[in-house]
Amino acid sequence: MPTNLNIEQWSTQLRKGLAEICVLAAVNQLGEAYGYQLVQFLTEHDGLALTESTVYPLLARLAREGQLSVTTTPSPAGPPRRYYRITASGKRSLEAMLQQWMAVGTSIQKIICNGSTQETKS
Amino acid sequence: MTENTSSAVGRAAIDAYLDSVEQALLAAHAPRGDRVQVRQDLESQIADMLAGEPQPLTEEIVQAVIAKLEPPSHFAATYGNGNGNGGSGNGNGSEPGRAWAARITRRPVMRWPLIAAVSCACLCFGCLLLLISGGTMFNDGPLIVLILSLLLVGFVLTPIAVWKGVKQLQSQSDQPRDRELVIRSAMIYCVILPVLVTGFFALATEGFILIPIGLGAFIYLQVVLVRRLHRRLSERLPAQASDAGAHAAERAVGTAMTMQAM
Questions:
Q1: Which residues of chain B neighbour A69 with C-beta distances below 8 Å?
Q2: Which terminal CB of chain B, N or C, has fewer other CB atoms within 10 Å?
Q3: A26 near A38, Cβ under 8 Å?
Q4: 0.95 surpassed by pTM
């Protein structure tokens, strides 16, 4: 039943599914960024609520898959920082994801608009 | 941790937190490389957060910073085996949701090093049967089918499994036994394959192929022998007078140039 739907739980699953595209897009936009910088950047965007427990494992996986390249450089604050940069493969994945995102978004928008039009008519 | 963040203060608490995260990732079957990377990123974040705190640091400040971080179990959620909320920080992943995520992320993983070892064993066993059966094998239908099946499986599957095993170990290198399996399988395959190929062609050409192979081996041995002899003699015999003279001249020129520079 729609009334029993846990909206928080639904939005968690939604964000989880979109985490990869957000991280790739953020790295692409920043050019080069270290982990905490990305977490802060993503936290600034309300609604995403992507925290370190999602971002760091995702960065590790994307680096393992060759979608991000990693450079380690010394940091004035302490241990060396790992800087992430999007690779050509990562850019291709991001483009494909964006196309899918646009297609899904457009379709959902159409369904919602049709629904609201019919409600107005009735 | 770091020199400028009062290295000793709160080190135990930070290590305990990082160890807990690593344990949670290990329990979720995260690859070793991922665990190391997540730990490094987190350690770097803690250092950054501590750098923004008033100095000198105290245990309380470090504890407060660690308290701002997420529970270690949340880090495992990405790998489909965590008890956390999926890392969003404000939700509680339901059981159906988690089961769905687990089905997607925890597909059965093929142990390619083990497959390489098994297919290599098939190859060895096939060769052994071939040797034992000897000349009688052609009269025995089921036996030759078994031998050919074993040889075919080992011949085709071993290189594929070794290659896949190498790729798997590169991404998840915390299985020392698997590493040994891949190395040994590759070595055994490299020993058996030339023997099998040579034997096959020898049978097919009624031994004629052994003549060029023997000739090639003979030439190779000659080259190796001559090279070794040349190296040994060059090492043991004194250098020629012209060589010695050239070296002396070089030394003299070098000395003169040094003196001029001074």
A1: none
A2: C
A3: yes
A4: no
